[in-house]
Amino acid sequence: MKRSLEKELIKWKDDKMRHPLLLRGARQVGKTYLVESFGKSKFESFVSVNFEAQPEAIACFDNFDPEKILYQLQLTLKESIIPGKTLLFLDEIQACPKAIMSLRYFKEKLPSLHVIGASSLLEFALVEGKFSFPVGRIQFMYLKPFSFEEYINARKKTEILEEIIKNQNFEKNLKLHEEMISLVKEYFLVGGMPAAVSNFCENFDFEKCFQIHEILLSTYQADFSKYSTKTIQKYLKTLFTGIFPLITQQFKYSKIDAHMRARELKQALDHLEWAGLIYPIYVSNASGLPLASQAKKTLFKTLFLDIGLVQHALKIDPKVIFEKDIILINRGALAEQFVGQELLAYTNPFQEGQLYYWQKAKKTSDAEIDYLYTIDHHIIPIEVKAGPHGRLKSLYQFMKEKKSIIGIHISQNPLSYENNILSVPFYLISKLPTLLKQILKEK
To answer: How far apart (Å, rounded) are the C-alpha atoms in residues 267 and 133?
Structure first.
């Protein structure tokens, strides 16, 4: 199964000015599989070290001399490592802080060697301050679950999307549109976790996917002991089970457990964010760029890592997903999760990505914009809502107050552009930059 990040890895391989690479992302999103596939197909040889499974390799990094490190690794692994021909993969690199520190010296003294490290719990090592991070000597890259575009590629349905974009026949496009919406609903159930996607593409069995979801959720809970004390684990378990019904709602600790102190729950929420399981969506005044400069960190919503895991945790009947309008399911929470997950999936892979939303500052107003999208110097509001344009009250209010020249409405409706509102079906979120640049150019 192809991942879009492989294109960036190929560019990195061919870049003579490259830095050692650290691939980051939550557990089970496919980091190891991606690097192994890339290493074995694009290099003459591939050498992998997993510091959790092979703790004996940690001793190879007792010094920071790249030549000595390679010598010790070759003795330990009984494999040759040849600069320019071998990809050296340092998996679970957070288990060996000195290996992270050594990346600086690989860049400075042995730049011809291709080195990739991977970690799902790197933030915890950084917070604990066990080492001095080699700033400016490492390049980060972030891997997330399969985007919808990657999913339909795995399902060998990409040509439908391409035909919709090229075809001007409305009636034919309407049939293709309905097929794509059906695939979106399928993705709601399968999600983007590689194990679930691979299994479904092979067996087309939702029940097997649900079993994988259960295993993954259990695995994440079992991981709590790796990065938290016994005291925090209690709060982590409460938060982990209670957060799913609150996805895409304004977060309040009292909704998790009114009897637990917010301070401990906040610490647990930070841990889930560091592990890549939770993404905060901060409110922003949206009066200028960057959005982060006007963000209010005390007001936020949350997304979970993957929509397939969300629907499984919420125990939503699959029949409901296929029979109802997507936006009406679970009061719109799944639709907003999907859109947020898609927006994150198509951000710059060298940045972690951050989402923002907007709400009217006055208590008397309930105006809210689900997501804020930036392109060039424009801030563009996104509303995820069923129904025609006439019901997009918050969208029009934002556009009037902030003088936005375009608003985006995401729904099950076909692609259209009318009265400065770009109506985008769920399956075309990956094409937002292309669609918006075309409209902005015409304006």
So the answer is: 23
- Please tell me the distance from the alpha carbon of residue 321 to that of residue 135, in angstroms, as a whole number: 46
**Element (H or E) spanning 99, and its range?**
helix 97-109
Classify residue 30 as left (phi > 0), alpha (psi -120 to 50) or beta: left
Query: Under the phi-then-psi rule, with left for phi > 0, alpha for psi from -120 to 50, and beta for the rest, what region is 428?
Result: alpha
Segments of 26-98 assigned E as strands: 45-50, 86-91
Question: How far is it, in rounded angstroms, from Cα 303 to Cα 383?
Answer: 16
Supply the pTM of this predicted model: 0.94
pLDDT mean across residues, the chain = 93
- Asked if the peptide bond before residue 388 counts as cis, ω within 30 degrees of 0, the response is no
* Cβ(414)–Cβ(173) below 8 Å: yes
Of the two residues 108 and 389, the one the predictor is more confident about is: 108
Strand partners, 114: 87
Distance separating alpha carbons of residues 163 and 82, to the nearest angstrom: 46
Distances (CA, A) of 374 to 114, 290, 292: 34, 9, 12
Assess contact for 386 and 361: CB atoms under 8 A: no
The pair of structure tokens assigned to 220 is 């994440």
pLDDT tens digits for range 266-317: 999 999 999 999 999 999 999 999 999 999 999 999 999 999 999 999 999 9
**H or E element: which one contains 381?**
strand 378-384
Query: Does pLDDT of 59 surpass 70?
Result: yes
pLDDT per position as a tens digit, 157-174: 999 988 888 876 656 688
- Cβ density class 343-364: b for 16+ within 10 Å, e for less: bbbbeebeeeebbbbbbeeeee
